[in-house]
Amino acid sequence: MRAFFVLFLFLASFFTRAQTVVIIPYFYIDPDAMNFINSAGITSNVQRNAIDKLVRNAKARGWWSKCIAIYPIVGGTASSHAFNLKNTAQYNITWSGSLTHTSGGIVSNGGFGNTNLNPSTIGMTIGNVHLSATMTKTGTRPSYDYTMGGKGSTSNTTLLMAISEMTSLSIAHLNFGSVTGYSAGFTGSGVHIATRSGSTTTLYIGTTTSNTQSTMGGTICNVKLYVMGYNNNGTAVAYSPNSICYFFTIGTSLTSTEANDMATDISQFNALIGR
Fold first, then answer.
1. At how many degrees (to 10) do helices 256-272 and 45-61 cross?
2. Is the torsion defined by CA of 230, 234, 237, 238 positive or negative?
3. 21 burial via Cβ count (<10 Å: 0-12, 13-18, 19+)
4. Conformational region of residue 145, where left means phi above 0, alpha means psi within -120 to 50, and beta covers everything else
5. Tens digit of pLDDT for each residue in 106-164?
6. Is the pLDDT of residue 165 over 60?
7. Quick check: 3 pLDDT over 60?
8. Could you give the CA distance from residue 263 to residue 114 in angstroms, rounded to a whole number?
9. Which helix (H) or strand (E) segment is 8 a member of?
10. Burial (CB count <10 Å: 0-12, 13-18, 19+), residue 45
11. Of 113, 162, 117, which Cα lies nearest the Cα of 142?
């Protein structure tokens, strides 16, 4: 089997040298990656290999187990963008309103995505949670632009990620009393990761910029979380059309090492598929 595999890789590399792509045989791809590839209908060898590498890295570095939902927004269609890489049978996104889906990601024209994930009903707690969103700024945003999350009937049940164009801040609300913002090096683009462990909330922008603060109490929101906007107690607040989004995660809290590894792996994945 080993000799066959080596020969297969040699031949695949030879015949695809012009595209510098090595086709990985299906029997060698990680089973979770393969399940996503099949469910989302991914046919590109470049995307297929990048998904496999992403999953293997996530498992090896430990942040895979911290995620309940991973949305790599790959494939270029509303259908392929809906699938949860962590488990394609759970928490797939239902798209509503006007959205533009391309290989580069998603732009909202008043639309949003319902993840069908209610953190309260699945036993998540406000002291053990993370959100991440990756985007590229393409124009001027509103004063506050909510890229993902939800809020229940009171402000103390807020779980969302926002960008403030007016004050040049990336902001995380892991309940309203724990607003964590950071502006150093602000561009409005990149991997944004907010994580709360106990009473401490940390916001990372990429791998080098972070802000940590003690937080107030609060409870986890009892509404389904949205992406490309947020769920304001049942009312959708859409993201602006001046950014393109292309990766989201929802899960339990991350260590600083796991957050930095996640940011590195997400950036590598996006680079491999050309965005």
1. 170
2. positive
3. middle
4. beta
5. 999 999 999 999 999 999 998 999 999 999 988 888 877 889 999 988 877 888 888 77
6. yes
7. no
8. 24
9. helix 2-15
10. middle
11. 162
